[in-house]
Write a structure and sequence with these properties.
With 372 residues, the protein is mostly helical. Helices cover 66% and strands 0% of the residues. The chain contains 16 helices and no strands.
């Protein structure tokens, strides 16, 4: 965990701090929603469970794409080749690695899990968005694609407009959830929206008082509650509910990060920094918790199973992160690739490099003459 952050309640929160806190909030929602969804599929649950599940899924992954857009321009400014190599190690590598791990785990523990063993799974990781860690593959394609488009000097606001039009068209055509056009246009819109909002959000929100931030978060939460309903959402409310969830999450994150020394801020900040690792590993530990309590201890209480799966996924993933850091083995979650350095031309052996002689000061001249 990072050391103490040097600002008080009266100063502006660091941009990185509130972004990490937002990611920490969202990764908790991700693990909770996965646990809740697995229980809903297997057991009879109260109607509000489905409503809660659908409400969380409206925005939690969209927030990750939105936040990823904040530093995207700075990253691609280092050059496309360097950016592409970094994306391979950060996104493509764990997508393939953990896709294979989950595929192998599904085969080994097929007796206790209901996940179907998909034929051709290893090869489908490279072209099917619905297979493996879809978030990583989608983020890889979108960020690399955005970088290529920006090489042509296309303004971000124009890219955002095209993405929104493409999403509206995909909804009009009634494409399925995992249709590539709908996936890329929906999450691409949130990614580019983060790029556009990079300077706008800190400029406005850092001037707001805590009571105003709380009111903003409550408005987002209230809209989610007011539009909640069992079953699929009404199409035109989908973007509005996602926006409400985004506003709620960022409002809460900015409010929490006002006190950088609090336990909640430090915990969420740490979870936000480990959000990729928790996203990858939590599924294994959450499934193991469900198998242990349901199959071996025969506990069928849905509330207990959701809680234990969520805690098992979070604590298990965190333990794995700590273990690999202690072992100094970072390759379980990401691969640090570096662009090959250009060779530096060396001088011939008979050439003496010319260096500028440092200018002496009056004190140096006195010391040289033996004067004090």
């Amino acid at each position: 965990m990072r050391g103490p952050l040097k600002h008080s309640n009266e100063t502006k929160p660091s941009r990185d701090l509130w972004i990490d806190v937002s990611k920490g909030l969202c990764i908790i929602l991700v693990v909770f929603a996965h646990s809740l969804g697995s229980v809903i599929q297997r057991f009879s649950t109260p109607p509000f469970a489905q409503v809660l599940y659908e409400s969380i899924y409206m925005f939690h992954m969209s927030v990750f794409f939105f936040l990823s857009g904040f530093h995207l321009e700075r990253l691609i400014g280092r050059g496309f080749k360097k950016f592409f190599v970094q994306r391979l190690g950060l996104l493509a590598y764990p997508h393939v690695l953990w896709g294979l791990i989950f595929w192998a785990a599904t085969i080994v523990f097929a007796k206790w899990v209901s996940t179907e063993i998909q034929p051709g799974m290893p090869w489908r990781l490279f072209y099917d968005l619905s297979v493996g860690e879809w978030f990583l593959s989608t983020m890889f394609v979108l960020t690399v694609g955005y970088s290529l488009v920006r090489q042509a000097k296309v303004p971000p606001i124009f890219i955002l407009a095209v993405s929104l039009i493409a999403y509206a068209w995909s909804r009009f055509k009634g494409y399925s959830l995992w249709n590539p056009e709908q996936v890329f246009s929906w999450y691409g819109s949130w990614l580019v929206a983060g790029v556009v909002a990079n300077s706008l959000i800190p400029r406005i929100t850092f001037k707001l008082k805590s009571i105003a931030l709380a009111a903003v978060a409550l408005v987002g939460f209230g809209f989610l509650l007011a539009t909640a309903q069992p079953g699929p959402p009404v199409p035109f409310t989908y973007p509005l509910r996602a926006l409400a969830g985004l506003v709620m999450t960022i409002g809460v994150a900015l409010l929490i990060s006002r006190n950088a020394q609090s336990l909640a801020t430090r915990l969420l900040n740490y979870l936000g920094q480990c959000s990729l690792e928790i996203y990858l590993a939590s599924g294994l530990f959450a499934s193991a918790s469900r198998v242990f309590f349901f199959n071996f201890l025969h506990i069928h209480n849905v509330y207990f199973l959701v809680i234990t799966q969520t805690l098992g996924g979070m604590v298990g993933a965190w333990s794995l992160v700590v273990l690999f850091r202690r072992l100094n083995f970072p390759y379980a979650f990401r691969l640090k690739l570096q662009e090959k350095a250009k060779p530096v031309a060396s001088l011939p052996a008979n050439v003496i490099p010319i260096t500028r002689k440092a200018r002496s000061t009056p004190r140096d001249r006195k010391n040289k003459m033996g004067l004090k």
